[in-house]
User: Which sequence fits this backbone?
């Protein structure tokens, strides 16, 4: 959604963004007014001063938003569209085609704070083994085997997890895998920006790495989901676990078992070859 806010600003239309994660990254978007997440209380009053309100989904974070404001635009049709374009591209097209903005780009306007060096640690592989829901997560044991293999090849694989997830992943340190203590999303962004590579599940951290121009390898359960939600800014590859299973239900249930460590290692080698 920062792509929309960035393009509005480029066309001299003031945009304000509300959101928990974006607010944590507000120092990375110096040109955009970013506020803390909105709650249900006094919502209509808080939105009253805006001409237009844009929300990605019709029912979240707020259901029935059009009853509270006359200028609501919801983007469900973009998410559901039969298109080969990623969401990053679709939102840029939305800015041109539906908002009528003349000066548009796919960029979300992210700018690293001073003092950071892009890909300072070219052998550091950021591995994100978690996701918002269990069905999106590749097997933890295979992430560990992948990291051990990458370390054997001379890389420095490191697992990035949320503070509340650290206790569940401390055991990876017994395999010589680093588990950095990153207490905020701002720290995660800085750490990613200086990493050489990213491997992870379908998740927001993958999009953050991609927007920071870190080469990404993203693991997805289904081709249709990957087509829409793959990271779409920098160099990246997508690996589908259940591509040959006949139904969506089977793909969602068994993809993580069909995706081998060897396949992920091979895809990472191809990513490196394409980036070189």
Assistant:
């Amino acid at each position: 959604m920062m792509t929309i806010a960035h393009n509005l600003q480029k066309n001299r239309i003031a945009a304000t963004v509300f959101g928990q994660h974006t607010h944590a990254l507000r120092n990375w978007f110096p040109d955009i007014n970013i506020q803390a997440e909105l709650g249900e209380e006094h919502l209509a009053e808080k939105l009253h001063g805006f001409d237009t309100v844009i929300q990605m989904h019709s029912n979240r974070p707020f259901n029935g938003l059009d009853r509270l404001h006359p200028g609501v635009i919801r983007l469900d049709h973009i998410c559901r569209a039969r298109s080969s374009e990623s969401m990053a591209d679709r939102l840029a097209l939305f800015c041109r085609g539906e908002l009528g903005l003349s000066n548009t780009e796919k960029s979300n306007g992210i700018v690293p704070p001073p003092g950071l060096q892009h890909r300072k640690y070219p052998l550091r592989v950021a591995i994100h083994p978690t996701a918002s829901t269990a069905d999106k997560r590749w097997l933890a044991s295979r992430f560990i085997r992948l990291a051990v293999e990458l370390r054997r090849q001379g890389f420095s694989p490191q697992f990035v997890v949320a503070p509340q997830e650290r206790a569940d992943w401390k055991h990876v340190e017994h395999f010589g895998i680093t588990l950095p203590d990153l207490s905020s999303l701002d720290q995660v962004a800085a750490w990613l920006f200086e990493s050489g590579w990213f491997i992870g599940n379908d998740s927001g951290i993958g999009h953050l790495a991609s927007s920071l121009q870190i080469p990404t390898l993203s693991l997805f359960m289904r081709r249709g989901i990957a087509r829409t939600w793959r990271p779409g800014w920098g160099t990246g590859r997508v690996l589908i676990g259940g591509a040959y299973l006949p139904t969506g239900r089977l793909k969602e249930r068994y993809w993580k078992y069909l995706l081998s460590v060897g396949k992920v290692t091979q895809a990472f080698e191809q990513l490196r070859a394409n980036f070189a």
